[in-house]
From TrEMBL:
It comes from Arctium lappa. It comes from the Eukaryota. This is Uncharacterized protein.
Amino acid sequence: MSYDAVLCEKDERESELQRTIEESKQREAYLENELANMWVLVAKLKKAQVTSVFVHLRMDPEMVEKIRAATAFEV
């Protein structure tokens, strides 16, 4: 192989690797966003569950405040 052919092959391989890196970065960003969305849903479900407990048990206001302080949930 000539020097020019080897250099051309190296450049092509480097371009392929750069594309792969860029695709990986985009996939990582997508997955991080999906994970963040899942955490938001988990927080909403927890809040809904705590709110449901308060409503169904009709707890006294003092107990509600204690649970709020312990769980950091707003009702």
